[in-house]
Amino acid sequence: MNDGLKILLVDDDKIMLFLHQTFLKRSGVSYDTVLCYNGQEALDYLDMNEAMATTFLILLDINMPVMNGWEFLRAIRDRPYLSRVQIVMVSSATEETEKARAFAFGQVIDYQQKPLTIESCRRIISSDKLRGFFDDPLSQ
């Protein structure tokens, strides 16, 4: 397992954060997760830890107070760590226009419906951009 990954769960709903954290663990993810209640908290965390040689996987809600998911995506565009950020949008929005808007940001690698499930967590960790950070569940 590679230690160069940090997972941030960003959502203003504490129950959703708990569920997503639980489902990640049950899908075989052994990394600690950092909980952020809005985009500004996530941005502050990244800014404070930008010197780390770490890839950040961010599971990002869209509708939050203080700084929503769209504002967060715009805010990280000019950050020096941008190339080390992979984002999965996690939203209750089902409109295709929302998905298209999300994928217009280069750091967005996936768009998942809320709430995540163990199966959707497994799909996320098996994505081409993240595969190297997780043990291959099929090889066990």
Question: Would you summarize the structure shown here?
Answer:
Helix content is 33%, strand content 21%. It is an alpha/beta fold and 140 residues long.
Give the biggest beta sheet: 5 strands, parallel
How far apart, in Å, are the first and last alpha carbons? 13 Å
The figure for the number of domains is 1
Rg (CA only): 14 Å
Strand order of the largest sheet: 2-1-3-4-5
Q: Topology as H/E string?
A: EHEHEHEHEH
**Strand runs, count:** 5
The level of helicity is 25-40%
The CATH topology annotation reads as Rossmann fold
**The CATH C-level class name:** Alpha Beta
Q: What form results from the Cα inertia axes?
A: globular
CATH architecture call:
3-Layer(aba) Sandwich
Mean pLDDT: 88
Assigned CATH superfamily = Response regulator
- How big a fraction of the residues is strand? 15-25%
Number of helices: 5
Which regions contain 5 or more consecutive residues with pLDDT less than 50? none
Structure description:
The chain has 140 residues and is an alpha/beta fold. The chain has a single domain (5-133), classed as Rossmann fold, CATH 3.40.50.2300. Helices cover 33% and strands 21% of the residues. It is built from five helices and five strands, in the order E-H-E-H-E-H-E-H-E-H. The protein has a five-stranded parallel beta sheet with strand order 2-1-3-4-5, sandwiched between helices. Helix 3 (69-75) links the parallel strand 3 (55-60) and strand 4. Helix 2 runs parallel beside helix 3 (69-75). The mean pLDDT is 88.
